[in-house]
Amino acid sequence: MNLIIGTRNSKLAQWQTAFAAHALKKKFPHISTQIKPILTKGDKILDVPLTKIGGKGLFTEELEAEILSGRIDLAVHSLKDVPAILPPGLVLGAVMKRAEPGDALISPRYGTLDKLPAGARIGTSSLRRTAQLLHYRPDLTICSLRGNVDTRLHKLDEGNYDAIVLAISGLQRLGKETRITQKLPMSLCLPAVGQGALAIETRAGDTAVLSLIAALNDAPTVAAVTAERAFLSHIGGNCQIPVGVYGCINDAVITLKAVIASPDGKIAYRCSETAPQQEAVALGHFLAEKLLAEGGKSILQQLHVLTENKEE
Ligand SMILES: NCc1[nH]cc(CCC(=O)O)c1CC(=O)O
Q1: If you ran DSSP here, which 8-state letter would residue 296 be given?
Q2: Where are the domains of the chain?
Q3: From the alpha carbon of 101, which atom of ligand 1 is closest?
Q4: 1-96+198-217 with 103-183: one CATH topology?
Q5: How deeply is 121 buried, as exposed, middle or buried, from its count of CB atoms within 10 A (0-12, 13-18, 19+)?
Q6: What HEC string does 106-121 produce?
Q7: 30 C-alpha to ligand 1 centroid (Å)
Q8: How far is the CA of 1 from the centre of ligand 1 (A)?
Q9: Which pLDDT does position 311 carry in this prediction?
């Protein structure tokens, strides 16, 4: 059997695709894999902040069209780039064992968040990171920063920022872990839904392919990210709202932690709940409901007002 795996063009996507292909071949030495690079909208529009384009599916749409048409069999995604609801006919056939889920600070000059001088320039275009950083340090100056991981590191090295924030997992995969000067604690910055996990997307009815990739599934990771994704779909969120969430598994029990913050970081509501691994979806919905009731709802209402005004 030959599997054609589509990949975005970025180095991170290529690494992740090669990693999944390698894992498949290790389990099934008789299959062959072929990797096909595909340009996505998210890779083309690099100069506009993602928050202004409407992030949903930006990195996945083109790959999904190729899977549906049968030109490729699989796509390997960073789960955090995969929208809550997939197009009809497609499924996530596997979620691989999660890497480190958190975010890292990279500040060659100052090292840690606490050592940054007042007003320091932080590069990030993520509302989630912005809101949580400002909640901890309201004096920081948040500056837009887009591009793939290498581009962002390069812009830091050009002296445009005092620090930048990136996912630990992406840096590790690209061999850039040594650039990390502080791993941000979960108490300070909760990751994006699914951060650090790789998902493999394929056709819903393709049992031959599905039964192969099922071998790459990691049950604890699936439980954790199922709770996180249920949380986000209950909130009704995408990457345009400052929400962080992290599910961790211990002895088949999920602890789900979440935050909703105002974009300026002035208000942040945090909540945590636990439930048995089998109740991942209910846990996600329950925590979302709790967070909305505790004030999250008013933040979301204000955000919707803001978006409407912008469109006028
Ligand atoms: N936004 C792009 C993106 N998508 C996934 C990762 C990291 C890898 C992962 O989450 O598995 C990154 C880079 C980053 O946020 O620093």
Answers
A1: I
A2: 1-96+198-217, 103-183, 218-312
A3: 10
A4: yes
A5: middle
A6: ECCCCCCHHHCCCCCE
A7: 32
A8: 31
A9: 41
The interface pTM score, or ipTM, of the predicted complex is 0.96
Here the tokens at position 102 are 């958190």
Q: Could you tell me which residues come within 8 angstroms of residue 290 by beta carbon, excluding any fewer than 6 positions away?
A: 271, 273
For the domain 1-96+198-217, what is the CATH code?
Answer: 3.40.190.10
Point out the residues that are catalytic: 81
Q: Decide: 78 in ligand 1 pocket, CB within 6 A.
A: yes
Q: What is the pLDDT of residue 60?
A: 82
Q: From the CB of 123, is ligand 1 less than 6 Å away? A: no
- Give residue 239's pLDDT: 54
Find the 41 Cα to ligand 1 centroid distance in Å.
Answer: 16
Ranges of the chain with pLDDT below 50: 52-53, 310-312
Cβ of residue 102 lying under 6 Å from some atom of ligand 1: no
| Ligand 1 site, residue 195, Cβ cutoff 6 A | yes
Say which CATH architecture domain 103-183 belongs to.
3-Layer(aba) Sandwich (3.40)
CA of 83 to the centre of ligand 1 (A): 14
Query: For ligand 1, atom 6, which residue shows the shortest CA distance?
Result: 170
Residue labelled with tokens 């409901």: 289
Helix, strand or coil, per DSSP, at residue 164: strand
Fold of 218-312: Double Stranded RNA Binding Domain (3.30.160)
